[in-house]
Design brief:
A: about 950 residues, TIM Barrel, 29 helices, B: alpha/beta, D-Maltodextrin-Binding Protein, domain 2, 2 domains, five-stranded mixed beta sheet, 23 helices, transmembrane (chain B)
């Protein structure tokens, strides 16, 4: 049998069209410089930019909800697959588009619900900062995806990003350039510098072995003298030993940039040469020059940057910081470079001397001179980024050092925005070449990144302030809106980020980024007030400050969150508060996880102290081992099997999941288990005696009080409930526990009023089926005999479900009754004795349901003052004649003088005693009055006078002697 | 001297551990089959997702056809009276779709009937894929399927239990057969005739698109035969290809004629009154064109661009001028079909059902539009900018489709509360109920009422107690005065003129009591269902 793809597939009828099987498109070799890029005219580029802007504007105006991001995701997957993308890049395309659409969708909706007014403080105080903070987060999330948008075919494990096609006639020989390597140092000493210089010399040897006609000069730029450090002699000895140049400044200024500029002048590294800079702890790989220098075959390439990774990952702070570095160097930098927007990161890079000289040398006015130089050079020089790990260095050794480093980077970067906003935002001056749109976008993203400290503070304050004071930054948002706009955006952002960052970094980068917010906040504040601060070195030795001192603000946040959570638990105020609760928990979790690092750093300090003591005050050096390069794994083979969940994890998951399912399952079981055999109430041996009322509080103390007063245990209690209520198991059980049978009446009114659904036609047509079935299931679950009246007084116009009013006709009663019974039967409620309770059971033929559908007939004898009271014996006889063979039930109520009531009760007693078919007699406590506690109900009460109470006691006693033959 | 630092560069990749599950899956023939159709599966998934988000109670036509279908089934199985001669005024054969739809409705309710429509429309999308793949290759097929699947009429029809999805699918199937058999013997084209006849029988308006299928049969007939070894298409002569077209057209004509003869005059009357000689409406040219443009202009423009792209590819591929001309004719026949329905409705001056008929045109235009989109994406080159542009085009069209299909689906009032209220009042057998657009409550209350209990505000004849026969407004007025109707439901919608004339006694509560005023909203704004109950009921 030929099936599926084994069958030869016909080619398209019309030739010239592509018919590559979209499943197995030939892999295009990832060599972006082998062929010229597709021609894109400037107008097309601008058109696409305006198109993107227009899309954003339209989404912002229309706010189409979650369907557009979903469609964007599906479309991107389908079309990009069709167009030949596969794997991670394919998914990145889908995420990028979905995050963009959901982000704009969310921000535009969020704008409409910013709180402005309010009391006691105007909402904008938190509303506008909160919106700006969210906007910052959203824009940077979208910025990440812009960087991830594929510009080139998939890169090799180690590849250049941002390198372009250069025609043969314009290419230059990159190996002809002399190279000057500068290693700036201040006080790091020989211990740190020796491996760096050794590594550089090894890399030089490897390079010269292949390209012997060029030269690499290694220069140590020593600022120890200027900084008044005592390391100059040992560095001098080291340089002499290794045969590298040692330049010591005697006039300071310009910090690291000034140091290098000075060394360049001294050694004459100018003209057509390449400059390479290593921080003194960055140890290059042997093939460093071999890998990077080919990037200079394009005469317009100004610099080639490679990553900066930490090798001392056994130190917890360095490990966490390295994860943060990984995110930047392994995810963001390639993306920026693909848009010709890479920037110099201060170390592990090569640059053309002519490029840096075109801006007058390395800028000395900035504490992040590298980034400042990049922005100034980027308009005229191309930048390239290399993805491999070509050098490994030392990460911060403790939290204080890490925060110091973060502070320097934040101040420097934020100041660059301050200094270069014209370059980034305004058109270039006439005659000058400005930055491209992509460069502006990427540099703006980079320079605004460090506002995340302020952003995180706002995120911390907003939910706490809302819960504690009620001041909300959001007004008019519903839970549905939240689901429609925020949840898709949040979920896609998170999923998109982790998809991109998978293998590249870990959750630690997120935590340490959040953990830095106090120091970033401080840096932002300094920049705002105009204090640039000094260039500070990242110490290469552990300081003496306790790590806990760096966590003061985090502890305050946790305390605030906990207080807010306690308040929330004590007095919840609806959905908005629960959402705030979610954020509070999230903040607690983030802060708590940062505390993990604090604890780890504390332990590390202790450990280092112990080891130092063991080794005579000097801890042994450890090997520098960088994090495994994920690009390798991404391009080779399948993921190692060890990444699969371990069997025990899977078993644990199964056990926990199974247990949860079991709990969920058992929690949905009915509270009362179903008895095996349900039986309806048969005619009791002696008539039950009880009380009842139209109102509903007859389940508790009321009955007990009357029983106590009468010194009688009732055999039944009558209760009326509305169709919207639930069955009261406690009430029913309290009666059945005494051997009695409860008598329930269900009326189809709503809050005492009849509605369209109360109509008999409505009941018969199934409009109330859900509620009836619910009652049926509950009564089935109750499982003990029960008298049930439905459609009471259906032959009267005042009934909620009337056969003579509200459009009802007598024939409707039977239909409705039969329908209700059918639903109860379907639910298995065989424990119900059906009590037909008309207004006049002696003359109800037009209304009465089929005899087979009735188990008992109830007489309602409510005797009003100043009227002729009915004869109970005659009434019972008439009812029995109209409904032969049925149990009779009585609900009586009297409003008259005590003597009248006593006399009538005597008659009733005699009438019942004369019969053998009365199942129950119930005194309706409030008569026809529905308000049991009201003034109108008092005259009807059984306990209104002592004589009646005494007579009723006698009646109850007499009933015990009535023999029904059971 | 201090200990020196050692540097260990770990750059070796993990050892290669055999093929991944994906690679193993791709190596299997089922895997290859599925992977080759992944774009189609993605498109179908998107179509399902975007369709099932549409929610509303039954549309008047849905209610009418499904109700009729139930009674047709009852007649077929038990010879129960239908109380109505549906064939005289239905725009499709009452024993085809209505029966099928009612069967699904009976099993799974309205959602079941709508699911059937969704299946038909998914089938149509698959046919678009198949047609395009065989004509223009897979990349264009993926694009064509995507464009068709997320067009507003497609999404709308995917959730509409009427004739249209079934008819559209059958047309698509016929088109696919015509294309798929192009390389085979000419008589194979006859396989397309039964679905084409069924399509037209299902919905008479489907006839409008048969000429396009015939033209496609002629043009693709030119590519009959295959060169052995290379599998390249071999040209068939003009005479043979025209003969292929005539074979299809002739057989189709004979079958349709025989069918009409068999079914009788009522069907001819139905076809005449609903389709071929439909009464002209009062909609303006501008309005019809604007509506048509909103619904289908995106795909239509891409289709015309596709004609150009295909011709350019043919020239680049070294085709002769004559061959290029044939291709232009083929692509143009498909592209111009997008304009047929709007043109016919312009001729009739009516926008009724335009939203559905535009979808029929898109079925034919989508393959050529797919060519244009695939050209824009430049398949195989993996150009991110072109991908972005293509995605923007798709997103814009999808967005418009989402918005439009939502509007279309909200074009009739949600009747759930009205029906719920009515359900509390209707009495089987005896009650007479006057309801504007009575098809909807009649459908929902089918188990409680009989067909003869329902009266609509479109037409009514009443015989007074004195034996006088009245019709129109006087009939309504007298019947209301006589409390002939047990229940009356007006919403001042399509028959607002009649409603406003006859509601005097009702508003004055003479003999009737207003029992509910239910809010409703449709494309024209917010209104109310007014429900009156007779005092004598």
């Amino acid at each position: 049998m030929t099936v599926l793809e084994d069958r030869p597939r016909p080619k398209p009828l019309l030739t010239g069209h592509q018919d590559a099987d979209t499943g197995v498109l030939p892999v295009i070799q990832p060599d972006p410089i082998a062929a010229p890029p597709g021609e894109v005219a400037p107008w097309a580029l601008w058109l696409s930019r305006f198109g993107l802007l227009a899309v954003a504007v339209v989404i912002a105006v229309e706010r189409p909800g979650p369907w557009l991001p979903a469609a964007a995701f599906a479309f991107a997957l389908g079309l990009a697959w069709t167009a030949g993308w596969r794997g991670r890049q394919l998914r990145n395309i889908a995420f990028a588009l979905a995050v963009f659409t959901s982000g704009v969708n969310y921000l535009s909706w969020r704008f409409t619900v910013i709180a402005i007014g309010g009391h006691p403080l105007p909402g904008w105080i938190i509303g506008i900062p909160l919106y700006l903070a969210e906007m910052h987060a959203a824009i940077h999330t979208m910025g990440l995806h812009i960087g991830l948008w594929p510009r080139n075919p998939p890169a090799e494990p180690e590849a250049f990003y941002g390198r372009r096609f250069v025609p043969e006639d314009r290419r230059v020989d990159p190996f002809k350039y002399p190279v000057y390597v500068f290693v700036p140092t201040v006080d790091e000493g020989e211990e740190v510098l020796r491996p760096t210089l050794t590594g550089i010399l090894a890399a030089r040897a490897a390079y010269l072995a292949e390209h012997p006609y060029t030269d690499i000069t290694v220069v140590v730029c020593d600022d120890g003298f200027v900084a008044k450090k005592d390391t100059v002699p040992e560095i001098s000895d080291l340089c002499r030993e290794l045969g590298v140049l040692h330049v010591v400044r005697d006039v300071g200024g310009g910090a690291k940039a000034g140091n290098i500029n000075n060394a360049r002048t001294v050694v004459g590294a100018e003209g057509d040469v390449l400059l390479c800079i290593f921080d003194c702890d960055q140890v290059p790989r042997e093939d460093f020059f071999l890998k990077l220098i080919p990037g200079f075959d394009d005469p317009e390439v100004g610099w080639v940057q490679s990553g900066q990774f930490y090798g001392n990952r056994k130190n917890p702070v360095a490990r966490w910081a390295d994860d943060q570095q990984s995110l930047f160097y392994r995810l963001l930098c390639p993306g920026k470079a693909a848009h010709n927007s890479a920037f110099i990161c201060g170390t592990n890079f090569l640059m053309r001397a002519t490029a840096i000289d075109s801006i007058g040398g390395i800028p000395t006015g900035s504490i992040t001179e590298d980034f400042a130089a990049s922005i100034r050079m980027a308009a005229n020089w191309r930048s390239v980024y290399y993805t491999g790990i070509l050098a490994v260095g030392l990460g911060p050794l403790d939290l204080a050092s890490f925060f110091k480093q973060q502070d320097r980077w934040a101040r420097g970067t934020l100041n660059i925005m301050w200094d270069h906003w014209r370059d980034l935002l305004l058109p270039a001056k006439k005659g000058e070449k400005g930055l491209t749109a992509q460069q502006r976008a990427h540099y703006l993203l980079a320079t605004t990144h460090y506002w995340c400290g302020v952003r995180d503070l706002i995120f911390c304050i907003a939910p706490i302030a809302f819960v504690l004071t009620g001041i909300s930054g959001v007004r008019g948002a519903t839970a549905t809106d939240f689901l429609m706009y925020f949840v898709p955006y949040f979920a896609l952002s998170i999923a998109g980020f982790w998809h991109a960052a998978w293998d590249i970094t870990t959750w630690r980068c997120i935590i340490i980024n959040y953990g830095s917010f106090p120091v970033l906040l401080q840096a932002a504040f300094r920049v705002v007030i105009g204090r640039k601060g000094d260039f500070t070195l990242t110490p290469k030795k552990r300081g003496t400050m306790s790590p806990w001192r760096t966590a003061q603000l985090h502890l305050i946040v946790v305390a605030g969150c906990l207080v807010a959570l306690v308040k929330l638990a004590l007095s919840s105020g609806g959905t908005a508060y629960w959402l705030a609760g979610f954020w509070l928990l999230y903040l607690c979790m983030m802060s708590g996880m940062h505390m993990i690092l604090v604890v780890l750093d504390t332990r590390q300090a202790r450990k280092e102290r112990r080891e130092a003591e063991l080794h005579g005050g000097h801890a042994p050096a450890e090997a520098l081992i960088p994090r495994r390069d994920p690009h390798q794994r991404r391009h080779k083979g399948r993921r190692p099997a060890r990444r699969l969940p371990k069997p025990r994890t899977a078993v644990a998951g199964l056990v926990v999941g199974g247990a949860m399912l079991f709990i969920l399952d058992t929690s949905t079981l009915a509270a009362h288990s179903d008895p095996l055999h349900l039986t309806a109430a048969s005619l009791p041996a002696h008539p039950y005696v009880g009380v009842g009322a139209l109102a509903t509080p007859y389940g508790g103390s009321g009955v007990k009080a009357i029983e106590k007063q009468l010194e009688v245990t009732f055999g039944t209690t009558a209760r009326t409930q509305e169709i919207g209520d639930s069955f009261d198991y406690g009430w029913a059980d309290s009666i059945s526990s005494n051997g009695g049978v409860p008598w329930l009446t269900i009326v189809f009114s709503q809050n005492g009023k009849s509605t369209l659904n109360s109509a008999l036609t409505a009941i018969a047509n199934g409009s109330d089926d859900a509620q009836i079935s619910s009652w049926a299931q509950q009564i089935t679950a109750y499982g003990k005999p029960l008298y049930l009246t439905v459609l009471p007084q259906a032959d009267r116009n005042y009934a909620a479900s009337s056969g003579v009013a509200n459009g009802g006709i007598p024939q409707d009663v039977s239909r409705a009754w039969t329908h209700i019974r059918a639903l109860f039967t379907a639910a298995g409620a065989n424990n119900v004795s059906w009590v037909w309770t008309p207004g006049d059971p002696a003359h109800d033929q037009a209304y009465t349901p089929p005899a087979s559908q009735i188990d008992a007939v109830a007489l309602t004898l409510a005797e009003f003052p100043k009227t002729t009271w009915a004869d109970p014996a005659a009434q019972l006889a008439a009812a029995a004649a109209a409904h032969p063979g049925k149990q009779l039930m009585l609900q009586v109520s009297l409003d008259g003088t005590p003597a009248q009531r006593v006399a009538w009760l005597k008659k009733l007693q005699a009438a019942i005693a004369a019969r053998h078919d009365v199942a129950a007699v119930v005194y309706q406590e409030a008569g026809p009055v529905s308000d049991l506690a009201g003034k109108d109900a008092q005259p009807w009460a059984l306990t209104a006078d002592k004589q009646t109470v005494a007579e009723f006691q006698q009646l109850a006693a007499a009933m015990a002697k009535v023999d029904n033959g059971g | 001297m201090a200990d020196s630092l050692t540097v260990i560069h770990t750059v070796d990749p993990d050892s290669y551990i055999g093929p991944s599950p994906w690679e193993r899956f791709a190596a299997h023939r089922v895997g290859r089959w599925l992977i080759g159709r992944l774009p189609l599966l993605a498109v179908l998934a998107l179509q399902i997702a975007l369709a099932i988000r549409l929610h509303n109670t039954a549309f008047e036509d849905e209610a009418l056809y499904l109700y009729a279908g139930h009674h047709e089934i009852a007649w077929l199985l038990h010879h129960q009276a239908t109380y109505d001669n549906y064939s005289t005024y239905f725009s499709g054969a009452p024993f085809l779709y209505p029966v099928l739809g009612a069967a699904a409705d009976g099993l799974f309710g309205l959602e079941g009937a709508r699911a059937l429509s969704l299946i038909f429309m998914l089938g149509a999308t698959c046919c678009v894929w198949g047609v395009t793949r065989r004509l223009y290759g897979r990349p264009a097929a993926a694009c064509a399927a995507a464009l068709f699947a997320v067009a507003a009429p497609t999404l709308f029809l995917s959730r509409l239990a009427t004739y249209d999805p079934m008819s559209l699918f059958l047309l698509a199937f016929a088109l696919w057969i015509v294309v798929a058999t192009a390389r085979g013997m000419a008589p194979l084209v006859l396989l397309a005739v039964p679905p084409a006849v069924l399509a037209v029988g299902t919905k008479y308006a489907g006839l409008l698109f048969i000429p396009t299928i015939a033209l496609v049969a002629v043009f693709v007939g030119r590519y009959g035969g295959r060169v052995k070894g290379t599998g390249e298409a071999r040209r068939r002569g003009w005479l043979a290809s025209i003969g292929r077209g005539l074979l299809f057209t002739g057989s189709f004509g004979v079958l349709v004629y025989g069918w009409l003869k068999l079914l009788g005059h009522s069907y001819v009357a139905g076809i005449t009154s609903t389709t071929t000689n439909r009464a002209s409406g009062g909609d303006s040219l501008g309005y019809i064109l604007k509506l048509a443009a909103e619904l289908g202009a995106g795909v239509a423009i891409l289709a015309f661009a596709g004609v150009y792209v295909d011709a350019r590819l043919a020239r680049r591929n070294g085709e002769s001028r004559a061959a290029v001309l044939v291709r232009i004719l083929l692509s143009s026949a498909l592209a111009f079909t997008a304009l047929l329905a709007p043109a016919y409705q312009v001729h009739l001056h009516t926008a009724t059902s335009l939203q559905k008929h535009v979808g029929f045109g898109l079925l034919f235009a989508a393959p050529v539009a797919g060519v244009a989109l695939a050209g824009l994406l430049r398949i195989g080159a993996r150009d991110p900018r072109r991908l972005f542009a293509g995605l923007m085009v798709c997103l814009a069209l999808t967005w418009a489709a989402i918005v439009q299909s939502t509007q279309l689906y909200a074009g009739w009032p949600n009747s759930s509360q009205m029906v719920a209220d009515l359900k509390t009042q209707v009495r089987p057998v005896t009650d007479r109920i006057l309801a504007e657009e009575d098809e909807v409550p009649r459908y929902y209350l089918d188990d409680l009422t009989e067909p003869y209990q329902w009266y609509s505000t479109f037409s009514f004849t009443y015989t007074t107690k004195k034996g006088q026969v009245l019709s129109g407004i006087p009939a309504y007025e007298q019947a209301i005065a006589d409390q002939y109707f047990g229940l009356i439901v007006l919403r001042f919608g399509p028959t607002a003129g009649v409603d406003n004339t006859i509601d005097g006694d009702l508003m004055a509560q003479k003999g009737y009591k207003l029992i509910a005023k239910v809010k409703d909203s449709d494309e024209y704004g917010t209104g109310y269902y007014w429900i009156w109950r007779s005092d004598s009921s």
